[in-house]
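Changelog entry: the Exported protein, putative record was regenerated in this release. Current contents:
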Amino acid sequence: MKKLVAALAAAAALYSFSASAQDYPTQPITIVVPFSAGGPTDTVTRLIAEPMGKALGQSIVIQNVTGAGGTVAAGQVAKAEADGYTVLMHHIGMSTAPTLYKNLPYNPLEDFATVGLVTEVPMTIIGRKDFEPNTLQELVDYAKANKEKVTYANAGIGAASHLCGMLFMEAIDTQLTTVPYQGTGPALTDLVGGQVDFMCDQTTNTTGQIKGGQVKAYAVTTGERLASLPDLPTTTEAGLDMQVSVWHGLYVPAGTPDDVVQKLTAALQTALKDQNVIDRFAELGTTPVAQERATPEAHTETLSSQTELWKPIIEAAGVSAN
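Regenerated structure tokens:
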């Protein structure tokens, strides 16, 4: 009798869980952003949140949880209930964290289910307005000749600007003095103010300063020129073998029901076709990913391949956050 009662109870619980997954969502959804409000990841998240919420029939709340290059937020989501109500938006840092952080409290490939990629943001190499080099080749030559005094700003270990800087130094086979900041904002402020020489950061951060003439722009780190910055050459055009973009994607805790993930993926795909999202992304120098990349399968493949790509680069640079 006890076994029958237990079996019935288990069946009832399974039915209840299945039914709740089918009804999802019945309450607001929280998207956790690992960086400060106003930053590029936060901006991308807020742009897609409204159309995603409309598609799901629920409001979406943005929660900024900063610290340790995004690992604090990711760790929080990894431990959240796997019910689809806590979602993580993260960028390329999900693929670099396992190498940068030796005591990482989660495994990006095991402790999360992927929802889909959102966008790949190009990066630009920029310098202070009065920096001596005027072209990318001149910058490379100047950096090699003056490596002891040239300063490269970044937004901290694991930030996109930090990763781009490592790639740049590897590409020119020269180690430069890096100046880490607590975020892109203060790094850009000091660059505009002339306290540091140059940096590499996402177009979502730099397009305004480039168009406003506040900084000197050298190149965009993509294979093709950008419609938003048509006069800016690519790194390849300028003779530097270096390409990098900052991809963003949505995650939920591992174990989240497949049909819940599917609903989130469908809402994401709807949001990426929203004209306001397309227009605002264009203003920021980026575009939504193609629909076939806004899927769990494409997202997982990107996360896995990028983790393998960055591992030897980070290890060769001897960089570690803990």
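The chain has eleven helices and nine strands.
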